[in-house]
Structure formats: structure tokens, C-alpha cells
Design goal:
The chain has about 150 residues and is mainly α. It has 9 helices and no strands. It has one domain. Helix 1 crosses helix 5. It starts with 17 loop residues before the first helix and ends with a helix.
Length: about 150
Amino acid sequence: MTSIASQPGGHVPAPLDPEQAIPSLVAQVYESAPAAERCHLVATLLRPLGVLSLVAIANGIFAKIRFRNAGQELNVRVDDLQNVHAADMVALVHHAQQVSVETVDSLVHLLTSSGGLASSAAAALLIGLLVQRARSRRSTQTQADDGSLDPC
């Protein structure tokens, strides 16, 4: 995996490619979010991911959170996130997109329902990209479904 360098101030630059921009924007939203909102953001991204895959991400920092919640509902605490940085979030989102793009797309609901998350320019850009990607995926799926009905 390629390393993503942070800009001064801890922000990760957002690339132009939407698939690469989304993890960077989530990291920027995470960095500017209040602590409680950070917990919700991380919990949403962790839900579909298995412990084994989390061990390989960000030196296992997210696997430790999952292990602490073994056998119970995932509950990310503020103290769990003390060592989670923007680059760790980029890695988490990148992996979550590969496993469940719908999970990452579901961040739109989380962002729009939380004033603490939705207040930044990065959040506005992220919402736009996620909505655009979801629409594009639905359109592609509809076209594929229509094509599967063609007897030729």
C-alpha cells in the first residue's frame, strides 16, 4: 500500500480521483470532528470488517478496538481513538471500500445527521462524492439488470 503523507496541520490532501479522494476526505472530516462523532464514524467503518483484516491496517490499531468488543456490540470509546490519526483513517476507509462500498456510502446519513461532522468543507465535498458514486453505481446496476433481460 502506498504511504500518504499528511500536510502541515495533520490534513491529508484530497486527490482528484474519487476513489482516492473519499478516504482522504473522511480523514479530514475525522480530524475536525468532535470526539463523540469520531467514535460514531470509526464504528460505522469497522462494522463490516473482520478482525483478521483489521490486523493488517494501521499497525492493528483498529483490531485492538474490535478485540476489546469481542462478543458484544461494537462500542468505540473516545480513549480507543487517542492514537488514531488521519493516515490511519485513510487506510481504514480504503479497506472498507474494498470490502463494502455500501458502508462507506452510508456515511452520507451519518454526516448529514450530525452537525459536528457536517460543518466542514471536507464533509460537504465528501457528501457530494458519496452521493454521486451511489447514483452512478445504481445507474450501472440498472443498466446491467436491463441488459440481462435481453434475449440476444
